[in-house]
Specification:
Largest sheet: 4 strands, antiparallel
CATH architecture of the largest domain: Sandwich
CATH class of the largest domain: Mainly Beta
Number of strands: 8
Strand order of the largest sheet: 1-8-3-6
Strand content: 15-25%
Structural class: alpha+beta
Helix content: 55-70%
CATH superfamily of the largest domain: Jelly Rolls
Distance between the termini: 80 Å
Length: about 230
């Protein structure tokens, strides 16, 4: 096809535009599975353009390689997800905070943390001190204190430290366990490094933190309203 302005905006050229549009769209995807699916669709459109319009065997070959590689990666991810199993504690964490994260990526996250049992009175965060770890409260409860005054609670299923661990900033309150509790704990520096290296895990963490912060704000608003009604 002759390289002219008319040909670029012709019906024949539309197929080529579609291939590149799908490729650009794939770069906007946060989930790897959708990125790869759109890349495959882009390559299919590219092959059609190369064969039907350009008759270009080189482009056809490399577009075919792009499809093969992405199908291979999708197949590998599917196989790893099928092999990944979670125990009761891990599945609870998954359902509450990481339901959309691919199982094999969640396993990668879990391996970098540890499950521990802590005693009553353990401080998970200390006001003014750097938050060195993110904790998931599998069982038990904790109170949130500022200057020894209780301002809130963390119940089963809560993430603790999510408001500051991502940024490495100091905690604004103490979080103290009411009784013995089982928590999943991951070092803050390790978490930040993983989120920077794996965008899918990073986006999943951001979403989980946002939901947790929104939940806390809603609970605080209800508490403030209840106190105002009493007074």
């Amino acid at each position: 096809m002759e390289m002219t302005l008319e040909s670029a905006f012709s019906s024949q050229g539309a197929l080529g535009h579609m291939a590149y549009f799908l490729l650009v769209l794939s770069m906007l995807m946060r989930r790897m599975i959708w990125l790869r699916i759109l890349v495959i669709a882009s390559a299919i459109a590219g092959i059609a353009y190369s064969v039907l319009i350009l008759t270009d065997p080189v482009s056809t070959f490399w577009e075919s390689m792009l499809i093969t590689v992405n199908i291979g990666q999708l197949t590998l991810s599917w196989w790893l997800d099928r092999r990944t199993q979670f125990d009761t504690r891990e599945d609870n964490l998954r359902q509450l905070h990481f339901a959309t994260l691919a199982p094999n990526r969640l396993r990668r996250l879990l391996r970098l943390g540890e499950w521990i049992t802590l005693d009553a009175g353990t401080r998970l965060t200390r006001a003014g001190a750097l938050v060195d770890a993110l904790c998931f409260l599998h069982d038990g409860s904790a109170r949130v204190e500022v200057g020894g005054v209780s301002i809130g609670r963390c119940d089963v299923g809560s993430l603790i430290g999510e408001m500051t661990v991502a940024s490495g900033e100091p905690a604004f309150a103490d979080v103290v366990l009411d009784g013995p509790a089982t928590v999943w704990r991951i070092d803050g520096a390790v978490l930040r490094d993983l989120a920077a290296r794996d965008s899918e895990i990073g986006h999943a963490l951001e979403a989980a933190f946002f939901r947790m912060i929104r939940k806390r704000l809603a609970e605080n608003n209800l508490r403030i309203r209840a106190e105002a009604d009493i007074s």
